[in-house]
Structures
1.
Amino acid sequence: MLMLSAAGAHAEITCAQLFEIAAATVELRDRGTSLTTVLKNTEDLRKANKLTEQDLQRVRQVVQESFTRARSPFEIFQECEAQKSATRPPYETGTSRP
């Protein structure tokens, strides 16, 4: 049900992946899948050793928030991008951005 594309063992989850998870959660909810069932699917990610425990907790939070309509998939994506931008070190003068 919930899949992570291109996530290797203990790969850091991307904002795009969080968006995909949130969107899939909304779709599952709209089809009548229970929150309990969707959350159980996050266990498959843990068993497959695809995520760190911290990222797994983040996925569960995204599932909960998108399922209950607390935040939209787009809001989740925007917040993730803002957090990543805030934690990036500033570029020194004279260096180019990657």
2.
Amino acid sequence: VVVTAAHCVFTLEQKLVKNLIVTVGEHNLRKADEQEQNIPVSQVIVHPDFNRLGYMHSDIALLYLKYRVKYGHRVQPICLPHKDDKFVAGTLCVASGWGRVSEAGELSNVLQEVELPIIDRGTCSDLLKQMNLPPVASSMLCAGFPDGGKDACKGDSGGPLVCRRASGIWILAGVTSWGVGCARGWDVLEKSINERGSPGIFSNVAELMDFITQNVIPAAEPDRLPPHFPEGCSSHGMLVFGESGHIQYPQPSESNYLDNSLCMWNIIVPEDKIILIQFTRLDIESQITCDHDYVSFYSDKRELIGKICGDVLPTPLLIDSNRAMVTLVSDGSNTGSGFEFTFTAIHKESEAGSGCGSVAVLVKEGKIDTANYPGLYPSNVKCHWFIEAPVENVIKLEFEDFAVEFSAGCIYDAVVIYGDTEDEHQLANLCGFTTPSPILSPGNEMLIHFESDGENNFRGFKARFTFVPSAEEAESVIAEPIVLQPATPKNIPLDVCGFPPFSPQWLSGRVVGGEEACPHCWPWQAGLQFLGDHQCGGVVVSPTWILTAAHCIQSTNRPLHWTVIVGDHDRTLKESTEQVRRVKTIVVHPDFDTLSYDSDIALIRLDVPLEYNTVVRPICLPNSTQLLSSSILCTMTGWGSTQEGM
């Protein structure tokens, strides 16, 4: 089945459907690519609400193919979103297609891709309203840059808008639908009505998942699903439903699993139950971080729960949902004999669902407690709970009752709490009879271990965990990256860190491959001069301190040779906003290594404090426990070389 836009096929007469061909594995339209496949369409299903509830509402359709697509390294399926998935404003996603390369340009023969940030529905509706267009419906998703320059265009309709999850999986967030013009931008106050454009409008696939699942996976109904998983490897993920079952790969008649494989299994148990997974065999290429070959587990929202490799059977895994996805990924060498595990549907309240003897994976707010609570917990028990909140949320753990054998250092019975899945970021090590204070995770993950020895058992604990918006999310609402640049500074107190007076345009490149910064949008930027020549950048952290790289000043750290300039934009001009200070003290990190550049950081103390104003402000410093996920887009600034060798 192929997903496309309804407006592409809505007017197609049934007798012409047999002439419709879908091509996959394509890159250059003028060449026959290695894995190119041309498959006739057997049936077209258009969303029943297309254009019925409003202009371009529910612009989505399904194409049933006459033959199955053959998957390979150049032909793979996209993951579908959960119907509750939300893609927050600012998320960078990718649209692709062979459409026009400009509004009046030619169609492209080579597949094109473009990164576009998601725009929240309210902002998008306001923009369309100013153009006398109807507001954005829930079945629509907006993306683009205020200044234009990047967009999908005519000929891209029906193509994908994909967003990447923190787990690395790409999700089909949108289907290219419509827009006013191509890459025009929407600064409506400065353009005539004929020059105005709109953001790119895409069909919101998450909102339309009911239509897809009803037509693509009718076998999801319990009485129509097979009782066990079919043999073999499928990269598009085959469904297995039941109260219990087992999955193995490869089959006993085969030797090792193949190189360069991607196999997926989607497990569904009855809605009122959760999934317990227990491995009986494991032989996957061993590597410390399991980056070569591995078996991975995903929640019903396609968020990574964990991955394993090697030959040591893992602790049973308890997934707090009635759906889960399991994948096997292998690289180009060193395979093993594979794996085998059983899955069982259990009630949440059962002993097996307690997290003791297994790892309970919890993705919804709730409560946890020790086995037998409020009775005495068992001896020699190990319990594990892994809690995962939605992205941009943190986890708040509040104990309602606590009674665990006390010992100095909690070396006997203990509750140990981590802010990550690798047991590296310990948040608390608890025992005794005093109810602990609430604990907040640094990110959207929390791992809780409880272990008892052979004697002195007590009530244990009962705790509630909730998901709350993270501080980073609150800041992103205030400092929204997708904004129109105002003509006047924001009215923000001068000593408040992290808020520029002007909102910068989104920057997607580095300084090499970047673009000129808007004047004074980064008011904490400092320039370091050695004997009058620009040497390095720095950042304002207080009126008297500048943070910089140790390698910049380590070999020439005589303070009298250095000056610091802030409030500057064009170094070739003497600007009235500039403040120049001499350096009083230089403090290089004691662990700075000139060979490895470890601990490459230094502090510079100014002789005279800076005067904060609309163009000179401090940056906020992170907490020592603050983590940056791999999906966060950051911006760097400076006056360095714009290309290598310059």
3.
Amino acid sequence: MDAAAKDKAEKERLEREKQELEARYLALILKADKAFTASKYEDARTAYTDALGVKAEEQYPKDRIAEIGKLLGDLAAQAEADRLAAERAAAERAAADKDAAERERLKAEADALERRYRDLIATADLAFDGEEFDRARDKYTEALTVKPEEQYPKDRLAMIEQLLADRAKAMSEADRLAEEKRRLDEERKRKEAADAEAARLAAEEERRRTEDSRSLAERYRKTITEADLAFTAKSYPEARGLYAQALDIKPDETYPDERIGEIDRLMAEEEERRRREAELAAKKEEPKPGVIKKPSNTIDIRKEEEAERFMREAKAREEAEKYERIKKLRRDLSEEEVNNQAEAWKRMEENVAGKQRIAESTDELYHGSEAQRIENAEKLKAYQDELAEIERQRQARSSQLRGASQASGDALRDQLAASNQTRHDLHAEQVQAQLTAAEQVREKLARDSQQGLARNSQARSEVVAVAEGQEALKVRGDELAQGNREQVTETKDVLQRRDAHLSQRSTDQRLAAQERISNTSLNEPKDFTDYNRSKLATEYPQGVTEESYTEGNKVIVRRVVVDGNKADEYSKVIAKWGTFYFRNGQSITEMIWTNGTEGE
């Protein structure tokens, strides 16, 4: 009895579990069918998959999953076809627009040619009617150059020749002479008018040259002032560039050339000091074991050595000329010091003579009559007053000179402060511009994201619209599902792999963009360099490629180092005032240049 009860209880439990399983399966199927009917294919596929997890032997969920995969594949294919059709339509519209623009251009040229021809013919006809046959002949001839195929100008020219011939025959000798005189007078008047116009244009050109000369002098003065301020602030590269600009404006001036020589000397001393410090620092470092530098087989060292030798010789010649100018300046200063000393001795002798006169006048006070003493005392008082006035004027001039010197110093300090403030404001503007650019990039990313969401929403709407038309195909789809299962499975795998690839690529691009923005300092934007690196990698072969060329008075050695899909551009600029190294537009040291382009 107990065994029978247990069996019955077990059967009831199994029946309940079966009913619960069936109820859960039906609920999932109902949910999936509802989502499928609403064209929510992803939700429907998830529910059908869950239903298969409950009852794996059921065929209906499998068929539905296969049908969903096929529908999604069809939608993707339709979307791709629509995209290609849109691209083709856009290309056709662009070609049509280009053809229309070309037709408009040709029509505009033809209209302009026609207008010019008509204007010439109208002018020629007026001259012909006024019996100005020479002017009419010129205009008809010019009209033929515009439209050589026209017969009307040819007929008019023939008529003019015939009229002139008939008039010449009918004209008496006196009339011919009078007509010749009239023609000569007209030609003289035209020539005088042309000469007057030429004189007016020459005067205008002379006035313009005078204004240009004044403007040139003002530009030279302004450039020299800015260069002196930069030199005083020890901004030698900026000062040298400004002095070079001034020398370009007025090549005969010696002051900018002397300043450039002095700047070159100061920069050479600074470069020599840095080189010695770098050598001392390099001596302190121990070489790393196992690192062997090999020269690149694509680098032509001879070009670099020849360029360096050329720049050293040019610099030596410039140094010799500079020292000659310095010697001449020192001689001029020595002569000026001798003249100043002579004037100082002269003034001192005049002061001694004045003191002697005072002493003699004082001695005279003790001789002679009382009237003479009073007169001498008055003379002495007047002379003392005169000396006091001279001393007061001298002190006033000295105070004025000190005030002028102080004012000049204050003005120079104010100029330096203004220059520093200008550079500070410029730096602040650059920083603000970079912040604005970064904000614009973020806004563009946000707009792109919004547009992507809008396109996704539109695609979903289109999917819903297509799903409504697919409702009538359900029965036929069920019949074809078994035969297309393998194809649907393969398509589903391809779509999943593509979706995964697109998702991963989108994530990588977003992370890379965030990393670039976070790593980009305010004064060093890196976006252009990153794009340039990948572009160089497609244009140059693997390894090191060297190019050299001359730009102005500089020799530039360019090396492109390609490693995989990355490329770095190194530049060595050899100038009279020194050698400079760059990587991707950023200044580097010679050691980084050597390690990056010659080391392995």
